[in-house]
Design a protein that fits this description.
Structural class: alpha/beta
Strand content: 15-25%
Order of helices and strands: HHHHHEHHEHEHEEHEHEHEHEEHEE
Number of domains: 3
Largest sheet: 6 strands, parallel
Strand order of the largest sheet: 2-1-3-4-5-11
Radius of gyration: 27 Å
Helix content: 40-55%
Distance between the termini: 64 Å
CATH class of the largest domain: Alpha Beta
Length: about 350
């Protein structure tokens, strides 16, 4: 034969396929396939089958492939409960987010979806834990009883008393974002400062100079860094800032809409909003008085979220890499649980997306 699979191997593959197909039909939801069945049909011991399926050494490559083929054909899944007992883990991680943000903020929804996807890819269960002023008894018991291995926290939840208590607790944790006062917590974050500089530079490149800024919550690190980036962009280009064009927002559409109504009286050429929600609020205020974006005024945001609120403009914004951010958070937590020591701070650079609201 010229390359490919040999006669013996081909016959063996056909024999295995026929053996598998001739097995009596079963409802795997009620009677899951066992390791013993995989081993028996593969012609190996349970120990060999276990090593083959777990990628351990001491198994010939052809045996490993045979066991994996049988396991896949039968729909075998490892007994997670037994695995967890031997490892001392529950294989469940918690995700802490503010309950009110999850209801109204597309950023929170995007982050939740990304973390859930990445946890599933790592075969980790995910428990959503919504922060309030006080945790429920169920949450307290979950933390105390070891029902979860560790937690991922959105920095938006920082400030809640019980979240701060959790940050002090002896439980593996990773923060998505940054804490305003602590640098002893593993965190993964997007680069907010230079990203904001880039979006202001884009407006300067369009010939705009009279630029307003609606900031975010002053207690949050991301808002502080974005406000700083707005100012430094002006300094680097030698463009003076009109302080009357800066307004303190709170990352919400409603407040941004009200602040934009005030700013429009001062005739800015563009508005840099601290997030996409604020940018949408600004655009609605502009349209309310009969002006158009970007013909009369440019508006830019930050986050790159997907809107499902009747907004059909292509927003110029800094796009947060939600999946990359979530994947890094999950992998960092798993590394900690495995006894490794990942860096305390890991940063991801977001990308500027030029849309139709600034050109």
């Amino acid at each position: 034969m010229q390359g490919g699979i040999g006669t013996v191997e081909l016959c063996e593959a056909r024999r295995m396929k026929c053996s598998i197909m001739n097995q009596p039909e079963r409802n795997t939801l009620n009677t899951p396939v066992t390791l013993g069945e995989v081993a028996q049909l593969s012609g190996v011991s349970r120990a060999t089958a276990s090593r083959a399926l777990n990628g351990r050494e001491g198994v010939k490559q052809d045996v490993r492939e045979r066991v994996q083929l049988v396991a896949k054909s039968l729909g075998y899944r490892p007994n997670k409960a037994a695995k967890n007992l031997s490892s001392g883990r529950s294989s469940i991680i918690g995700l802490v987010m503010p309950s009110e943000e999850l209801i109204v903020d597309p950023y929170a929804i995007s982050l939740l979806q990304a973390v859930a996807k990445k946890a599933e890819e790592r075969d980790e269960g995910l428990m959503l834990m919504l922060s309030h002023d006080e945790p429920t008894l169920a949450v307290r018991n979950t933390l105390m009883d070891g029902l979860i291995d560790g937690v991922i926290l959105s920095s938006v939840a920082v400030g809640s008393e019980w979240v701060e208590d959790m940050l002090d607790a002896q439980i593996p944790k990773v923060l998505i974002g940054a804490h305003p006062f602590r640098d002893d917590i593993h965190c993964v974050n997007v680069e907010n400062f230079e990203a904001t500089v880039s979006i202001v530079d884009h407006l300067f490149d369009q010939g705009l100079r009279r630029i307003a800024n609606i900031t975010g919550c002053p207690s949050r690190v991301d808002a502080i860094e974005r406000a700083k980036g707005f100012r430094v962009a002006h300094e680097r280009r030698g463009v003076p800032i009109d302080e009357s064009l800066i307004r303190e927002g709170d990352f919400t559409q409603a407040v941004a809409c009200r602040l934009t109504e005030e700013l429009l009286k001062l005739e800015p050429e563009a508005i840099v909003a601290a997030n996409d929600e604020s940018a949408i609020g600004a655009i609605r205020a502009v349209e309310r008085i009969g002006q158009r974006v970007p013909d009369d005024i440019a508006v830019v945001g930050f986050d790159g979220i997907t809107f499902d609120q009747g907004f059909d403009q292509d927003l110029t914004t800094v796009c947060q890499p939600f999946e990359e951010l979530a994947g890094l958070a999950v992998s960092t937590l798993v590394s900690i649980l495995s006894g490794e020591s990942p860096p305390l701070e890991q940063m991801i650079a977001p990308q500027l997306r030029i849309g139709g609201t600034s050109i």
